[in-house]
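Following up on my earlier message about S-adenosylmethionine. Here are the inputs again, as you asked, copied directly from the submission form:
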Amino acid sequence: MPRLTPSFLRRAEKINPLLPLLLRACRDLRSAQNELRWLTEYARGCNSGAHPRWKPLLLDLCKHRSQGVPLQYLLGSEYFGELEIRCGPGVLIPRQETASSVSYLASRLRQGDFGDLNLNRLRVIDVCTGTGCIPLLLHRLLSRCCHDSSSLRLLGVDVSPIALHYATLNRQLLLDSLLDESRTMAPLRLDGIISSLLSMSFIQADVLPSSVQSQRSTIPQLLPALRHLGEPSWDVLISNPPYISSRAFATTTSRSVRKFEPRVALVPSTTNTCFRSKPELREYLHHVNQGVAKLEEGDLFYPRLLDLADEMSVKVCLFEVADLSQASRVSLLIRSREKWKSVEMWRDEPTLPPDGDGQEPKGSFRVLGRGCGRSVVCWR
Ligand SMILES: C[S@@+](CC[C@H](N)C(=O)[O-])C[C@H]1O[C@@H](n2cnc3c(N)ncnc32)[C@H](O)[C@@H]1O
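Thanks, got it. Here's what our run produced:
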């Protein structure tokens, strides 16, 4: 990272005395100026009863930013596709690459590429939902192209109460904005869109099997929770699970991610699960490997998600992954199960043509798009 020289900081200070603070976090002048504009707009917007003077608030925000607090936590939201999603400490900030995968999934669903699925009655479960950004974007993209979207059903699941708080809030804000929109759109068409959003729900459940000791935990396991809801079967399973090993977390993530984003969203946590010790975890991964996939610690959720997909009669799965290596391991695992007709790997921008670098199929799997390996998709 380039060092900030005193003369550069003095130059920035002459433009605006707050810029040197922001430069500590974003390093180049252009980004610092953009952030200052957004933070100023935000602070002015808070200029109400609780914050009668916006300037002290702006100074406070810039100080937090200089300590590395993510801009999205300070502004309270991030864009995800065309949606503005609320987020804050304790929940993962939605990423644009995830939105690209979800948008591409929606376009392939609309084209009917995954076999015989009725979009009007599609049932989608998002496991590890965080802010709820995935089901909310998918609802946005699918509900407007359905004849009658009132039977479209989406469910988000997460173990974290903070995530569920944000997911529920985001659904409510989207509902409010749809009701505003209903003044300009044909009411009948919007009725279906609103009723499918009203039926979208978020529940607390644990995806990993719990240990005998923690079976009295108040957090239910996913399958019993779905049976309790009376909804054991789903058509599409999406998941952006924690997928970074503890070692990669310590060595490859940025300081801001490590310090401010929730570790439980990034690294598979084995606390309270039946894989509490490293040998137990290794033995489980060895057992599910079936000699082909050579799974690693960060891959823990994928075999479990595939088991759940079978139990829920899921027809299409989309799993987010860290890179092409993890995509290859997950694809091999899927193929070894002999239950899926097709498997594809998608890069960050699945709709862009390949840039000619390393685009050859990986182990005979089709790889689409440009950028880093981002998702694995399979269908029956
Ligand atoms: C990588 S984040 C994804 C959040 C969101 N889907 C997104 O794309 O921004 C993973 C999420 O998994 C949740 N999670 C972690 N362990 C879990 C478990 N055992 N069962 C259910 N959810 C879990 C975390 O709370 C976190 O919200």
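One observation from looking it over: The longest helix spans residues 161-181. Hope that helps, and feel free to reply on this thread.
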